[in-house]
Amino acid sequence: MTSATPPVLRLADVSHTYSGQRRKTTVLKSIDYSFERGTFYTILGPSGSGKTTLLSLASGLDTPTKGTISFDGQDLTKLGFGRYRNKHAATIFQQYNLLTYMTALQNVICAMEITGAKPATGSRKAHASHLLEQIGLDKTMTTRSVMQLSGGQQQRVAIARALACDVDILFADEPTGNLDEDTAQGIIDTFRELAHEQGKCVVVVTHSQQLAAQSDRILNLRKGKLTEQVNT
Ligand SMILES: Nc1ncnc2c1ncn2[C@@H]1O[C@H](COP(=O)(O)OP(=O)(O)O)[C@@H](O)[C@H]1O
Ligand SMILES: [Mg+2]
After folding, report:
1. Which residues surround ligand 2, an ion (CB under 5 A)?
2. What are the protein's UniProt keywords (predicted)?
3. Residues contacting residue 141 through CB under 8 Å, at least 6 positions apart
4. Average pLDDT by stretches of 10, the chain with 232 residues
5. Fewest CB atoms less than 10 Å from the CB: which of 57, 60, 66, 121?
6. Protein residue closest via CA to atom 26 of ligand 1
7. Do strands 225-228 and 66-71 pair parallel, antiparallel, or not at all (unpaired)?
């Protein structure tokens, strides 16, 4: 019998509890789920249901109170959280967290320097420039302070920055929340391409049904449980 390739990301019996001064809040309850490469996932759920918590655990920013998270079959505690975040998983935060005193280009280069990412050919600058262009920002925009870019353009910089490190998994927390419909659609198209043409695993938390409808798999987070929505 041959063993199947492990999923790119696996959550096994994952629970998470926040300990407040007075009481404990269990946000996630024994979640089991496997995420695959080449697939675009969306996670829906009411506000406060634990979506951001789930992303921070899956992206190695926090550790679950119980259970294990593994990348390509390797437990994150063994692989190392720093290594996982640098080489394998990138997160686009709800607030883009761009360095506002830098240009778009500098933001992307800076991320590559911090994570030690080196392009296969050419300089970091050339690679950053290429990524920004690919995602729809031309030179006049990339050499401007990010403060002078629109919300949609800043979102693109955040995506290019996440991609610069050539990760396997891309997480995004409500990435289209502040964008108009056309701009949001452009971002959704980019996520689909990343999954379907570049084989990335893309996991997006959203409130948007429009976005969810275009993903390959829709997950619902409710009362601490993650379930897959079956389209009939
Ligand atoms: N650092 C924290 N300490 C204590 N409670 C928290 C913390 N972060 C989130 N929570 C609580 O956990 C629940 C889920 O929060 P969150 O993951 O942000 O939900 P969502 O992203 O779905 O809105 C909420 O009740 C929130 O108040
Ligand atoms: Mg949230």
Report:
1. 51-52
2. ATP-binding, Nucleotide-binding, Transport
3. 104, 132, 149, 153
4. 81 96 94 98 96 96 97 97 92 82 95 88 94 88 92 88 89 84 84 93 92 96 95 62
5. 121
6. 48
7. unpaired
CA distance 154 to 156: 5
Residue nearest to atom 14 of ligand 1 (CA): 50
Burial 179-214 (b: 16+ CB within 10 A, else e): beeebbebbbebbeebbeeeebbbbbbbebeebbeb
Q: In terms of Cα–Cα distance, which of 78, 50, 54 is closest to 64?
A: 54
Question: Residue 225 C-alpha to ligand 1 middle, in angstroms?
Answer: 15
Query: What's the distance, Cα to Cα, between the start and end of the chain in Å?
Result: 34
Q: 52 CA to middle of ligand 2, Å?
A: 4
Measured from CB, residues less than 6 Å from any atom of ligand 1 are 18, 20, 25, 27, 45, 47-53
Q: Phi first, then psi: what are they for 60, rounded to 5°?
A: 75, 20
